[in-house]
Amino acid sequence: MAADNVSEWPMTRFHFVVRIDGIEDDDNGIACTEVTGLKYKTEFIDYRPGSDPELKKLKIPGLKSYEPITIKKAVFKTDSRFYDWYKDVQSGDDNARKSITIELLDEQHDPIITWTVINAFPSGFTGPDLSSTANEIAFESVELVHEGFDMIVS
């Protein structure tokens, strides 16, 4: 039975690590709780030569577009890395574009799938929602635009 073979079980999505070039982290990367937006699509161009007897349009691959990636993490007293990076972009820092590595890990903490995001930089920063009656962790997030990503399955 396939379910008895652990290597054929689907991967879980809760064990991952994020590393951003030029942004300090510990050995385990940046302590993020969520990454969303690993999506891209290809726009198609309709084409039909006038001499085509089949009276249909062909679909030809066109430009690619990449959705923004959002990274969410808990707020810590001495950690302003996301906000500082966002400020660097707003002040015109030429080094604000960064490569990001996102690794989905197995039970032995080895990468199974690695996404490498190309030339990412913050287009938005969201601070925590605050409430005097909330008994919750404070979270912040950064929205990143980028120039695509590669995916490698180990």
Low-pLDDT parts are none
Element-by-element helix/strand order: EEEEEHEEEE
**Strand coverage percent:** 35-45%
Classified by CATH, the class is Mainly Beta
CATH architecture: Roll
Helicity range: under 10%
Number of strands: 9
Radius of gyration: 20 Å
The global form is extended
Write a concise keyword list for the protein shown above.
single chain; 7-stranded antiparallel sheet; 154 residues; 45% strand; Pnp Oxidase, Chain A; mainly beta
Write a compact overview of the structure shown.
The chain is mainly β and 154 residues long.
What does this 3D model show about the protein?
The chain is mainly beta. The protein has a single domain (2-153), classed as Pnp Oxidase, Chain A. Helices cover 6% and strands 45% of the residues. The chain has one helix spanning 81-90; strands spanning 16-20, 32-36, 40-47, 58-66, 69-74, 98-105, 111-126, 139-145, 149-153. The strands form 2 sheets. Strands 1, 2, 5, 6, 7, 8 and 9 form a 7-stranded antiparallel beta sheet that branches. A two-stranded antiparallel sheet has the order 3-4. The protein is extended, with a radius of gyration of 20 Å.
Which secondary structure elements does this structure contain, and how are they paired or packed?
Elements (H helix, E strand, L loop, with lengths): L15 E5 L11 E5 L3 E8 L10 E9 L2 E6 L6 H10 L7 E8 L5 E16 L12 E7 L3 E5 L1
Antiparallel strand pairs: 1-6, 2-5, 3-4, 5-8, 6-7, 7-8, 7-9
